C-alpha cells in the first residue's frame, strides 16, 4: 500500500464505487429496504433455494439496472440478481429430464443422501422434492427477463450436512449476523443442529452441471460455491469445455494461423460454446497451488475469484489467504460480503475486504477501488 494511504480515501472509494459480487440480503427480506441507504453502489444478490427465487426477483425490480452505464452513477443503488440452486439444497431436486416423472419423496431422499437415512420421521419432514426441468425452465425465464442476471449460487460442497427439523425464522438469526431483528426467510439452515447426512456428490454434480449448461446457453456468468470440492468443480467444468481449450503459447508460435491461435476471447463472443463465459469462485478457499489449474492459459472460460472477510479471514490461515490473493491476477479478483442482511454491517464488511485486498496487493485504496470496479464490471457485463 502506498505511504500515507492508511485511513485516507474513504470518500473517494465510495465515489469510485464498491461492488459486492456475492451476498444474500433476501435471507432477511426486510433488510432490502436498507439497500437504498447503503454506501455500496451495487449488490449482486444470490438465490439459493425455492423460497428466495421470487424474493431476489422482487429485490432486483426495486433497484433495477437498465443498461451497463447505470452503475456509473454514484448517487444510485442497484441490484444485479442471480438465480440458482445451492448445493446445500440440491437433495430437494430430482432430475426428470429423462421424462420419468416425479419419484416417491422418501425413496428419492434415500437415493441421494449418504449414509442412507433410516429415520422415517426425518425423511417425512423434508420438503416435497422439486422438478429439475421445471426449475430450469423457470430460471431461464428469469434470465430472459433480467438481461444482466447471473446464474448463482450454485456449486459443490463435500462438508455440508443436512440440518435437523424445520427452518428457524426467529429474530435471533439477525443478531448472529449483526443485522436486522426481522425474521429469516423460510428454508434457512442456520441455527439448527446438523444430522450425519450429506448429499451424494454425483447428485450434486447433476444439479450443478444442469445449471452451468443453462448459463452456457444464455451466455451468463456464474457464481460458484466450492467447499472441500475445488477439484471436483474444476473437473466438471473441464469436461464441459473439452475440445474448446485455448491453444498454448507453444502451439500459437508453432501454428500462428491455426483456429483460435490469436488472442481473441471466443468465450465472450461465441454463442454456441457449451460452457459459461465467466465463472467466479466465490469466497475462494482453495490452496494457492489449485489456482494454477483454473488460471491455465488453455482454459477457455474467464475465471474470477472473490474474497470476503466473513469466510476467508474468519477461520482460515491468514498466510494461506494472503498467498492466494497474491496469486490471483489483478484483473481476476473480486470482493464480496457474503452477508445475509443488507445495511450498515454489509458496508463495513465490504470496506474491510477492500482494504485487506489493497494491502495484500500493495495497491493504493483509490487504485484498488478502481481495479475492483473494473473487474466486477467485466465479470458481470463481459
TrEMBL record:
Residues 161-196, 240-275 are annotated as: Disordered. InterPro entries: Metal_Hydrolase, Metallo-hydrolase/TatD-type, TatD-like. It comes from the Eukaryota. GO terms for molecular function: hydrolase activity, acting on ester bonds. PANTHER family: CUT9-INTERACTING PROTEIN SCN1 (PTHR47345). This is Cut9 interacting protein Scn1. It comes from Exophiala viscosa. The lineage of its organism: Eukaryota, Fungi, Dikarya, Ascomycota, Pezizomycotina.
Amino acid at each position: 500500500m502506498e505511504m500515507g494511504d492508511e485511513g485516507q480515501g474513504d470518500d473517494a472509494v465510495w465515489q469510485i464505487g464498491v461492488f459486492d459480487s456475492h451476498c444474500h440480503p433476501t435471507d432477511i427480506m426486510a433488510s432490502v429496504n436498507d439497500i437504498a441507504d447503503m454506501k455500496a453502489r451495487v449488490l449482486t444478490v444470490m438465490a439459493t433455494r425455492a423460497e428466495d427465487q421470487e424474493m431476489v426477483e422482487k429485490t432486483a425490480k426495486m433497484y433495477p439496472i437498465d443498461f451497463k452505464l447505470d452503475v456509473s452513477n454514484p448517487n444510485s443503488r442497484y441490484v444485479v440478481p442471480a438465480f440458482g440452486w445451492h448445493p446445500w439444497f440440491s437433495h430437494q431436486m430430482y432430475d426428470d429430464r429423462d421424462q420419468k416423472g416425479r419419484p416417491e419423496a422418501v425413496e428419492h431422499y434415500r437415493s441421494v443422501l449418504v449414509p442412507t437415512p433410516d429415520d422415517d420421521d426425518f425423511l417425512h419432514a423434508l420438503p416435497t422434492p422439486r422438478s429439475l426441468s421445471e426449475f430450469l425452465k423457470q430460471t431461464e425465464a428469469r434470465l430472459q427477463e433480467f438481461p444482466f442476471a447471473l446464474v448463482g449460487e450454485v456449486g459443490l460442497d463435500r462438508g455440508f450436512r443436512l440440518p435437523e427439523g424445520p427452518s428457524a425464522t426467529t429474530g435471533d438469526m439477525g443478531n448472529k449476523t449483526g443485522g436486522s431483528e426481522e425474521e429469516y426467510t423460510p428454508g434457512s439452515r442456520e441455527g439448527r443442529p446438523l444430522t450425519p447426512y450429506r448429499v451424494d456428490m454425483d447428485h450434486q454434480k447433476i444439479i450443478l452441471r444442469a445449471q452451468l449448461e443453462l448459463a452456457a446457453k444464455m451466455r451468463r456468468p456464474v457464481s460458484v460455491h466450492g467447499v472441500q470440492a475445488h477439484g471436483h468443480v474444476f473437473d466438471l467444468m473441464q469436461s464441459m469445455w473439452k475440445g474448446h481449450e485455448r491453444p498454448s503459447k507453444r502451439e500459437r508460435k508453432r501454428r500462428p494461423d491455426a483456429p483460435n491461435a490469436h488472442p481473441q476471447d471466443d468465450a465472450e463472443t461465441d454463442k454456441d460454446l457449451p460452457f459459461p463465459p465467466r465463472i467466479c469462485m466465490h469466497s475462494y478457499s482453495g490452496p494457492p497451488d489449485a489456482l494454477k489449474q483454473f488460471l491455465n492459459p488453455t482454459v477457455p472460460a474467464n475465471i474470477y475469484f472473490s474474497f470476503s472477510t466473513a469466510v476467508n479471514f474468519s477461520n482460515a490461515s491468514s498466510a494461506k489467504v494472503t498467498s492466494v490473493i497474491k496469486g490471483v491476477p489483478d484483473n481476476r479478483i473480486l470482493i464480496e460480503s457474503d452477508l445475509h442482511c443488507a445495511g450498515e454491517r454489509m458496508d463495513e464488511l465490504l470496506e474491510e475486504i477492500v482494504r485487506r485486498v489493497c494491502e495484500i496487493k500493495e495497491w493504493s485504496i483509490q487504485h484498488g477501488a478502481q481495479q475492483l470496479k473494473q473487474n466486477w464490471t467485466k465479470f458481470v457485463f463481459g
